[in-house]
Design goal:
- By secondary structure, this protein is an alpha+beta fold.
- It has four helices and six strands; from the N terminus they run H-H-E-E-E-E-E-H-E-H.
- A six-stranded antiparallel beta sheet has the order 1-2-5-3-4-6.
């Protein structure tokens, strides 16, 4: 029989399981997560937009994630990239205050934006500016 995880107040266990977070309750004490549905015009390609925000962390917090078979476009202060399907898991360490903005594409939804098979992104990330040149770099210019 599987272990039962007690439901904490205001915890969103069902939502967090969908994203592959390891130990979602700990994560929700360190950062805020929100997602937004895409417009109808792009919903065939994009599952949702998401943002993770953390403020004044006393100690670094590492969130481990079990990969999903999808492509994410991720923008932080330090990088702006398209992440293909990552085999296994990965982690992201949050320090101080910050934010990560993302677009989660539906399975197969990124192919029209890549112009080729998405398998060429498997196991790697590509900077948006590298993939789309000046037009891609313009997307992530600090304003």
């Amino acid at each position: 029989m599987a272990a039962m995880v007690p439901r904490l107040p205001q915890a969103r266990l069902v939502e967090t399981r969908q994203r592959g977070w390891v130990d979602p309750y700990a994560g929700l004490t360190a950062f805020d997560f929100a997602r937004q549905a895409p417009s109808l015009e792009i919903s065939a390609y994009v599952e949702h937009f998401w943002v993770v925000t953390w403020t004044d962390l006393a100690e670094p917090y590492e969130q481990r994630i079990v990969s999903q078979p999808i492509v994410n476009m991720t923008i932080t202060q330090n990088f702006h990239r398209i992440a293909g399907v990552i085999k296994g898991g990965f982690s992201y360490t949050m320090r101080g205050s910050g934010r990560v903005l993302g677009t989660r594409f539906r399975p197969g939804g990124f192919r029209p934006f890549l112009g080729g098979p998405v398998s060429q992104l498997t196991g790697r990330s590509v900077e948006i500016g590298e993939m789309y040149g000046a037009a891609g770099a313009t997307l992530v210019v600090d304003r």
